[in-house]
Amino acid sequence: MSAAFAAIWLPANPNAAISLAAGQILSALNFFFLARLVKLFTGSARMEDRGTAESMRGKGLLLGGAKLAVVYGGAFAVTRWRGIEYLPLMLGLSMPLLAIFLKSIMLALPAGAAKFSRRATSTASPSRSQAKLAASILLVGALTLPLALLGPARAFANDPPAAATAAEAGHADGSAAATTAEAGQGEAAHGEEGKGESGEAHLPNWITIANDYAPNNPVVHWMHENEFLVFAWLAGAIFLILVKVVMKRSAPVPGHLQNAIEWIVESMEDVCGGMLGKHLPKYFPFIMAIFFYILFMNLIGIIPGFKSSTSNVDVTLALALVTFLSVQVSGMINLGPLGYLDHLAGSPRDVIGFCMLPVMIPVHVLGELVKPVSLSCRLFGNIFGEDTLIVVFVGVAAFCLKASLLALAVPPMAGITALFMLLQTLTAIVQALIFSLLTTVYLYMMIPHESHAHEEGGHAH
Amino acid sequence: MTEKEPNKVTGWRQIGVLSAIPFILALAPIIGYFLGTYLDKKFRTTPWLSYVLLGLGFVAGVRETINLVKLAQRED
Amino acid sequence: MNFAATLGLALPIGIGLAAIGSGIGLGFMGRGAMEAMGRQPEVLPKIQVAMIIGFGFIEALTIYAFVTMFILSGKIQ
With a CB-CB cutoff of 8 Å, which residues 433-452 of chain A face chain B? Predict the structure, then answer.
C-alpha cells in the first residue's frame, strides 16, 4: 500500500515521494525495534532462566542503541536534507501508526467485550439485538438524509456573507473559512501543517491534499468545500458496512466483532432501559443509531488524514435538530395534541396556573429550544477543543522540526500529542454516550409515566 | 457483583445527566435574548422583547435544571 | 483608545478573570465535598450529586463569560 502511494506521487513530485517513503521506512523501523525490545523484556521476564540476564541486558542495550542510532539519526538526516517536504514525511510516518492503531482497536474491542460476554449472552438472545441493529441501520440511513439536506443548505447560507466580508470568514466555522485560507495559500500549502494565516487551524486531511494536487477538479473541489459532509457520509458508510458484516456472519457463538457490538448494545440497553421502561423497544433503535453515528464520526478524526465532522457546528446542530424533532413528535404522539399543548402550558390546574399562562408558555418553549442547542454546543465544543489542542501541539512539533537545534524536542512533543490523542479517544466515546443519554432523558420527559404521575397528583412533567 | 451493577449504571447516568446543567443554565437566557432581538426586528419593539425573553430564559433555564436534578435523584 | 482596542484589551482579561473566579469557586466546593466525604463516607452518593450540581452552577457562569466573549469579539473589526 505504501509503495503504491509512493509510486503514485513519483512522477508528479519526486521529492514528496521520497519523503513519504523515508517516513514510512523510518516509522516501520521504529516499530520493528520497539517490538523486538518489548518482546525481549517481557518474554524473558516470564521465563525463569536467570542465567541469560546478562546477555539479555546486552542484547537490550544493543537493540536500543541501534534503534536510537538508526531511527533518530535517520530522522535527523532526513530533516537536514534540502529537498525534504514535511507533509509527505508526516504522512509516511503516520501510515504504519494508522495500521497499528487499527489493529490495536481490533484487538482491544474483543478483549474488553470478552469480560462481559457471559452476562450479555445470558440476558438476551442474539436475534433481538440483531433486529435492533437492523432497525438502527435503517435509521442511520434516514439520519444521513436530513444531514445531507441541511449541511449544504447551511454552507450555502454561510457562503455569501463570507465572500462579502473576508474578515468575517476567520470566525465562520464551516467550509467557507477553509476555502478562503486555502485560496490564500495556493499551491504552497505544504509548508506547514495547513495552518492558515487567519488563525483557523486544522490538520490536513486527504481531501485537502487532493485539492492541493488537483485544484481544478470539480469533484475534488466540491468535496473540499463540503468536507464535513463527506466525512459524515464516510462514518455512516463504515458503520453500515461493519454492521452488515457482523449480521451476515452472526452465529450463536459470537465472534470478536459481533461480540464487541453486542456488548455495546447490551450495555446501552442497561443504561437506557431503566429510564424508558416499557417504551424502550420503540425508541432504542433511534438512540443506538445516534450513538453509533456520533461515535464513528468522533473516532474517525483520530485516524491521521481524516477529520471528525462533529467538530463543525452545522453537523452537531443537524443532529440535535433530528433529536429535537423526534422528541417533539413523539411527545405529540404519546400525549396527543391536546395533551401536548397542555404540557407546553405547564398543565394548569387552578386559577393561579391559568393566570401564569402567558408567562409559562414562553418559558416552556424556551426550555424546549435550549435542549438541542445545549446538546449541539456541548458536542461541538468538546470535539473541536480536542482537535484544536492536537493541532496546536502538532504545529509546535512541526515548527521544531524546521529549526535546526530544536529538532531534538520533536520526540517529546510527539509523545505529548499521542497522550492527547488518547484523551481524544476518551472524549469521543464519552460525548457520544452523553449525547444519546440526554436524548433518552428528553424522550423520557415527553412520555407519560403512570406511576410517577400517580405519586405527584396533577403535576406531570 | 450482580447487586452492584445497576447502582453503577445509575451513578454514571446521574453524572451524565447532571453535566448537562451548565450548558442549559447558560444557554437558555442567551437563546432567549437572540430570539428576542429577532422578534424585535420583526415587530419593531426594539429593546423590550429581548429583555423580557432574557428574563424568561433565566426562568426556563432554572426550571429545566430543576427538572434534570429531580430526574437524576430519582432511583429508576 | 477606540472601541475595538478597548474590546481587544478587555476580552482576554475578562475571560481570564472568569476562569480565575470559577476556579476558586470550584476549589472551595471540591474541598468542602471531599472533607464531607471523608468525614461521612456513608452519604457519599448524596454529596456527590450535590457537588456535581454545584459544579454545574459555577460552570454556567464561566460559559456566560465565554459566550459573551464570542458575541463581543464579533464586533472587533
Answer: 433-434, 437-438, 441, 444-445, 452
